[in-house]
């Protein structure tokens, strides 16, 4: 009877720990997904602005066809189904191309003075900044999850439920 | 010449008389009284009736009806014409007497007021000492002139911080700034002694005046005479925007200094026993030892106690552990890149919706005070007893970080402040006129400009609600609405309203479009995430507290369990 009683308490305590640690891991895992989908939203918004930008630039900078085609080509490569690494690569290439487009404004004063262009430049820059912040947030969530998965006693639960590490969202140069 | 009648309620229980009294008054005077609950109801004045000289009969009728409602009227003339101001506190009947009004006082001290003066009627006050004090408190709290006459018809007035001339104070005192106001008052106390003496020996000395009010008034009087105080009450009290027509019997109060109606009071709460109370914690091991020594008699009892403690601390151990892991798992977000859902943000508290705490005078978006009064429990034994808890929590406040602002809605929030301070006197003297040795206030405050961190759900603001309140505000803006009064009949008819509404909607859309993404979000409590934690401590400090608690409850839990097992084996 006594052994049963002690055993019961012991199981309750173990179950309590298991419950909390398992839920924490699930919470962290979902935070990773949420952080990634938050980035997706912004990537999509930025993607939607690119055709407008290309259209305006085309009007002023007719000789930059190659650059504009390149941006359009990269843009069309975006898909929600890309993995984290694919999204990171996509995001960096778009950012680089956009920087080149914005640099054109120095070469074409009329473009620099266009209100629509300025508005888009401001909007895209703001989106880029937000993407950077959310990337930071995503990486924080991933690091937190990965660290937990390797820490004791989380490592036992992570092993039991096949919880794998997630990759970081890193800027590709 | 027009005359105005004002009404006022004094009540400690907001909502009780507020809701009904003005309806009754409205009935009695047969006029609509326009008021908004937040501004008007509670402790305040409202212009309820204005009349020309020839309308005196109807005014008298209205006053008599008010008398029937047993709202005892107190009449105060607006200028210094009264020779016997102390008699104004109870006047029952108003009569026309040659070129003056005569207020027949039940004590036989009639009061005469020249017809050229405006009349102020304050209802809801009777002549017991305590409520006379309430009147004075009220006059002070509303920054309204209090007419106490000292010798040579010297008027002693209330101190209005807005009207204080600091450069003049500097000449009279070595202190000059707001934060040194207590010191300034101490300095001025000395300088205003002459006025106190004048007052005490004056023919119109009112015996029931409290000492603090006396000092307060004397200081004010001293400051007034020496140019340290700029009195602009007469213009301020009558808000000219609202006297245009008789339909606007509404006074917009200036609550810049203190808004007592917003502090919610809970008197004498049930005292809950807190096992983590520092006074109880040292008793636990003592109880263990005592029960262990007498284990033969108390074996079973001790065992039950051990397992109860184990269950109790075990439960809290898991609860706090869960919370700690949760706090560690919520990522920190910058305000500008915040997304919908659970977020942890930090920032500096802005002063929107902040009011000064009446206890410390600190401008804060949240404060909570506990009022203790020293009471005799036995002969020669006195104890501090909790008599009141007051709290100010606005529906929302704002924080700022890196130039971005964010609204925090406080419903269901858990506000955790790192420390509390004890005061024996209050910053606003009218707030507590009791003996400072017998009273203490323990206050927790979340001041403007303090750094806080918040964990809660970011939610898009309700566009419809915002639109509604925008329309309401625009509708109340007479200047704006007058633009649409095309036929200039001072009434906005349906067609005019349609035009006004579409203009308001355009303005609202423009305003919304100018907002940046994060400005559409606010942090609040949601049922899904079930948390809104606000603290002026850093996250690290909060986690440290959690750790301490976890260790403490873990140790107590394990010890209780081991003791329980030992007792079972024996």
Automatic annotation (TrEMBL), chain A:
InterPro entries in alphabetical order: LemA-like_dom_sf, MamQ_LemA
Subcellular location: Membrane
Membrane topology recorded in Swiss-Prot or TrEMBL: Single-pass membrane protein
A Pfam family recorded for this sequence: LemA
Membrane-spanning parts: 6-28
GO cellular component: membrane
Family annotation (SUPFAM superfamilies): LemA-like
Record key words, sorted: Membrane, Transmembrane, Transmembrane helix
Source organism, top-level taxon: Bacteria
Family that this chain belongs to: Belongs to the LemA family.
UniProt-recorded name of the protein: LemA family protein
């Amino acid at each position: 009877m006594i052994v049963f009683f002690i055993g019961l308490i012991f199981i309750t305590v173990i179950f309590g720990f298991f419950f909390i640690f398992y839920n924490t891991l699930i919470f962290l895992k979902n935070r990773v997904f949420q952080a990634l989908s938050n980035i997706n939203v912004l990537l999509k918004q930025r993607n939607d602005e690119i055709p407008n930008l290309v259209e305006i630039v085309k009007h002023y900078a007719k000789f930059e066809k190659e650059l504009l085609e390149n941006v359009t080509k990269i843009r069309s490569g975006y898909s929600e189904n890309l993995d984290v690494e694919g999204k990171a690569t996509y995001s960096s290439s778009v950012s680089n191309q956009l920087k080149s487009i914005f640099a054109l404004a120095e070469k074409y004063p009329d473009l620099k003075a266009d209100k629509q262009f300025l508005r888009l430049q401001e909007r895209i820059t703001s989106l880029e900044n937000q993407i950077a912040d959310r990337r930071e947030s995503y990486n924080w969530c991933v690091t937190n999850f990965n660290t937990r998965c390797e820490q004791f006693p989380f490592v036992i639960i992570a092993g039991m439920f096949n919880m794998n590490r997630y990759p970081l969202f890193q800027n590709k140069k | 010449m027009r005359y105005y009648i004002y009404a006022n309620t004094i009540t400690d229980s907001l909502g009780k008389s507020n809701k009904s009294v003005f309806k009754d008054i409205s009935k009695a005077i047969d006029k609509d009284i326009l008021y908004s609950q937040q501004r008007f109801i509670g402790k305040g004045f409202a212009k309820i009736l204005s009349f020309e000289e020839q309308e005196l009969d109807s005014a008298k009728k209205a006053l008599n009806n008010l008398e029937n409602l047993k709202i005892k009227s107190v009449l105060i003339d607006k200028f210094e014409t009264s020779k016997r101001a102390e008699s104004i506190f109870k006047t029952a009947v108003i009569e026309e007497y040659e070129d003056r009004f005569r207020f027949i006082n039940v004590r036989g001290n009639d009061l005469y007021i020249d017809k050229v003066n405006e009349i102020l009627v304050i209802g809801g006050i009777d002549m017991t000492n305590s409520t006379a004090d309430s009147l004075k408190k009220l006059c002070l709290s509303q920054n309204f002139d209090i007419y106490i006459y000292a010798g040579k018809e010297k008027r002693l007035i209330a101190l209005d911080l807005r009207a204080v001339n600091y450069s003049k104070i500097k000449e009279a005192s070595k202190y000059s700034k707001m934060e040194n106001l207590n010191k300034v008052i101490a300095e001025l106390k000395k300088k205003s002694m002459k006025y106190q003496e004048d007052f005490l020996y004056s023919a119109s000395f009112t015996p029931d005046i409290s000492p603090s009010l006396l000092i307060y008034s004397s200081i004010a009087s001293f400051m007034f005479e020496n140019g340290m105080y700029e009195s602009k009450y007469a213009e301020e009290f009558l808000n000219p925007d609202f006297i245009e027509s008789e339909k606007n019997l509404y006074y917009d109060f200036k609550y810049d200094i203190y808004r007592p109606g917003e502090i919610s009071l809970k008197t004498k709460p049930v005292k809950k026993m807190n096992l983590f109370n520092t006074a109880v914690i040292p008793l636990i091991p003592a109880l263990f030892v005592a029960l262990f020594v007498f284990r033969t008699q108390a074996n079973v009892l001790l065992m039950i106690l051990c397992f109860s403690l184990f269950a109790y601390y075990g439960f809290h151990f898991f609860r706090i552990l869960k919370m700690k892991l949760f706090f560690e798992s919520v990522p920190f977000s910058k305000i500008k890149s915040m997304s919908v859902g659970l977020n942890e943000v930090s920032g500096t508290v802005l002063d929107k919706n902040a009011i000064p705490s009446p206890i410390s005078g600190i401008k804060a978006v949240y404060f909570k005070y506990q009022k203790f009064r020293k009471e005799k429990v036995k002969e020669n034994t006195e104890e501090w007893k909790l008599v009141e808890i007051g709290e100010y929590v606005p529906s929302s406040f704002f924080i700022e970080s890196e130039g971005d602002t964010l609204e925090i809605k406080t419903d269901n929030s858990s506000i955790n402040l790192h420390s509390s301070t004890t005061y024996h006197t209050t910053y606003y003297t009218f707030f507590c006129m009791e003996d400072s040795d017998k009273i203490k206030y323990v206050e927790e405050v979340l001041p403007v400009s303090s750094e806080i961190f918040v964990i809660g759900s970011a939610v898009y603001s309700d566009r419809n609600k915002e639109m509604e309140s925008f329309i309401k505000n625009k509708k109340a803006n007479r200047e704006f609405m007058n633009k649409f009064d095309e036929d200039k009949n001072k009434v906005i008819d349906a067609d005019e309203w349609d035009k006004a509404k579409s203009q308001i909607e355009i303005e609202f859309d423009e305003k919304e479009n100018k907002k940046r993404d994060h400005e559409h979000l606010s942090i609040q409590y949601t049922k899904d995430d079930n948390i809104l934690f606000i603290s002026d401590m850093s996250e690290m400090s909060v986690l440290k507290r959690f750790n301490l608690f976890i260790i403490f409850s873990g140790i107590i839990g394990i010890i209780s369990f081991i003791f329980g097992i030992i007792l079972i084996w024996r």
